[in-house]
Amino acid sequence: MGMGSFGQGARSFQGQRLLDILQAVVSPLNLPGWGISATHPNYVRARQMYLLDKFSRNVETNLAGKHKYAVRAAYIPDQALINGILDDKIKAVLFTQCDPLMSAPNSRKTYNAFMKLDLLVSANIFMVPTAAMADIVLPVATTNECDTIACFTGTGPLRAIPKIVDPPGEARSDVMILNDLGKRLGLGEYFFDSDVETMNYVLGPSGLSWEDMKKKRMLAGTFDKKGEESGFFTTSSGKAEIYSERAMETYGCSPMPLWEEVIPRWQPSKEYPLLMTSYMDEEFHLSKYKHVKSMRRRKTYPLVRLNPEIAKSIGAVDGDWVWVESNMGRIMQKLAIDPEIDSRIILCNFGWYFPEDPSNADQWDKANINILIPDEPVERASGGADTRGYPCRVYKAEPSEVVLPAYV
User: Fold this and answer.
1) Could you tell me how far CA 189 lies from the centroid of its own chain?
2) Has residue 155 got a pLDDT over 70?
3) Domain chopping of the chain, boundaries
4) pTM of the model
5) How crowded is residue 282: how many other Cβ atoms within 10 Å of its Cβ?
6) How far apart are CA 326 and CA 17, in angstroms?
7) Which pLDDT belongs to residue 175?
8) 58, 244, 273, 394: which is deepest, by most CB within 10 A?
């Protein structure tokens, strides 16, 4: 599924099907790009390293069991993991290079789940909020402190990122943290002794070694025009299946996308008349790097963008702190007036916490937009939850309510 708004959330699977069906119906065969077949580079995918052929899993006990696409794609949706913890099915968790306290919807539910764990381990570069509340923090080597391969979309080309300097202190690659953990669990025969050995295994099907890859720099697939005689589609019928029994039988979805499966879930109300969506900063990456002073000097605080009419109606001006509130809770961000924003929309800043105030896990709930968003409903196939278009209201914060140390 794609990374656009139709490739995420509670309409991702059927929404993407809808776009594919429209393309099949309206696109002529001679349109540039039609019938192009992508051949992905040949290497060992992450899902092939889950040892499913060595240790079988019971699909019925899988936390994502009712989300058949998630099971086939070998991932567990956020809310399925959190519900599993709250239902006492999960007692210990290791997170590597992620910050689910900030990135998963319904953050207070996530916090309560993490507090219930017997053991929470976070492997990360920085002390992000999830790491700040962890029992054990494992320092991870960053870019060019270890030999690694990057695949930024999961399906795109591989890129070699060679080691240039040694990591500081006890920091190691997350790959080696997992390798050593596997060995300590008695599974040493399936794991590796070094980053380079791991890279050589991943690259094995391509015929390249890590030394070859460092010289080549990138391993990409190809895009070729499929011949009509071979068929454009990999469906059992060889045709574009607008009505798909496989969608129903395999994934439990309706055979054709239904209107209610792709329309927005929520509508504004008198109490919450605006719809909240979000944006990511150019200065940071997701929720990371709020600790880096050079980046914080470019953007010191989170900015919520509002139409001038809305700002005027609440008596606020540029730079004022304002509350954004939903029926789930409220958060505080600084106002940035933007005439390009529709007067029905609140555009909130994603991924914000305040490492300059280490109390309460870096004030994780002060400006975190996922405080405002529920983790239900979810899509049947993928388990995706909507994180856009949730009804909210906005109002000016009182000076006494702004309790944050000045950033230096």
Assistant:
1) 32
2) no
3) 5-222, 265-401
4) 0.90
5) 8
6) 31
7) 93
8) 394
Distances (CA, A) of 401 to 145, 326, 334: 42, 18, 13
Task: List the beta bridge partners of residue 325.
Answer: 330, 393
Contact criterion met (CB below 8 Å) for 133 and 146: no
CA distances 99 to 104, 286, 336, 364, Å, are: 8, 9, 26, 11
How would you classify the pairing of strands 36-39 and 345-349? unpaired
* Cβ neighbours for 225, distance < 8 A, ≥ 6 positions apart: 35, 36, 37
Hey, which CATH number is domain 5-222, 3.30.70.100, 3.40.50.740, 3.40.50.2000, 3.30.460.20? Answer: 3.40.50.740
Residue with tokens 């006494």: 400
How sure is the predictor about 231, in pLDDT bands with cuts at 50, 70 and 90? low
CA 171 to chain CA mean position, Å = 24
Calculate the dihedral angle through the C-alpha atoms of 25, 30, 32, 37, rounding to the nearest 10 degrees: 80
